[in-house]
Model the fold of this input.
Amino acid sequence: MRKVKVELGSNSYEVYIGSGLLAQTGRWLRESGFSGKLVIITDPTVNRLYGEALKQSLTKEDFSVVTLQVPEGEEQKSLETAGRLYHELTSSNAERTTPILALGGGVIGDLTGFVAATYLRGVPLVQIPTTLLAQVDSSIGGKVAVDHGQLKNMVGVFYQPRLVIADTDTLRTLPTEELANGLAEVIKSAAIRDNKFFAFIEKNTDKIKALDEKVLEEIVFQSAKIKAEVVEKDERDLGLRNILNYGHTIGHAIESASDFKTEHGGAVAIGMLAAAKISNKMGILDKNELVRLNNVIEKAGLPTEMPNLNVEKIMQTMKHDKKVLRDKIRFVLLKSIGSAFITDEVSPSLVERVLGGDEET
Ligand SMILES: NC(=O)c1ccc[n+]([C@@H]2O[C@H](COP(=O)([O-])OP(=O)(O)OC[C@H]3O[C@@H](n4cnc5c(N)ncnc54)[C@H](O)[C@@H]3O)[C@@H](O)[C@H]2O)c1
Done:
């Protein structure tokens, strides 16, 4: 097992990463000082696959376990579902000291985190992420939220978990597209912060796709370490943490302009490449680095070509995105693989040219 410490003063916690961790969860929670009742919030698929194993590990340590289920899908990240969960928590006599365990992907993690942060003004939260995206990204850093109206993550708070347990065995049952969504975030982490890790991904893409145990542990560990380090420097997302949005400014606009027919991972991959092309055209990023990024994305099975979408629509969506500051679109660009910076000095016409395919790699 590998451990990453997230140093946030009195809100510090550890991320445990490795194989076979679900079975040890009861012991760790006992050692963390918890006893009595625990609530697991999960979805039906994850509950069917991992609910029983987690429950066994907890009951073995004499915890009494209540499991609450939420249907799958982003639409469950809502105030309505949160309201239903508050009701069920009250009916289960969950108290101020009752820990809530988020067992699932980013949807369960964000929703459960929001509920844990607000129920009785905050109860202990433990994240048990089961998608690659949740293990490398959403379970770490304390951003918890629900969507509201058309706006994603509109209502939320910063609320750090007490512990994150990322059992890499759970990744074996992930559908291919969910693995790809996580891989895009793994590539992003390396691209913005760690050239050595990027080289590891370049060398081991086949092993990643074959779910090699040691390689999976390594990519989750390295990505979690990068996320932790960035969050430690900017917990409240006022500066540096923005670099985690690399590929997401254009990516979100592509998702939205395609009516969410383009998967998140694919959209982020295309967004990363577009941002790298912009960096190259501005004379900041060497062509060889752009080619490396293109190749690793391709090898990972993620798209490298812009889908056939209306460029004007993508530009409009970006302008409405929350990453726009005083009418300027905020971009994360690359200086080299492993080094990113934030700027709002990108000319819209260059973005349009890159999105329109006029600027080839
Ligand atoms: N809080 C943050 O910092 C942060 C960062 C990035 C993304 N997010 C949020 O994360 C969400 C997306 O999360 P996601 O990509 O994990 O998707 P998800 O939570 O919707 O999970 C995807 C699907 O995978 C299934 N699943 C989960 N684990 C599985 C497993 N081990 N085996 C088989 N199936 C499994 C789930 O049932 C679900 O159907 C979005 O709402 C996004 O806003 C939050």
Observations:
- The first strand starts at residue 2 and ends at 6.
- The two ends are 40 Å apart (CA to CA).
- The pocket of nicotinamide-adenine-dinucleotide is lined by residues 43, 45-46, 49, 72, 74, 77, 104-108, 110, 130-131, 133-134, 137-138, 141, 143, 152-153, 170, 173-174, 178, 181 (CB under 6 Å).
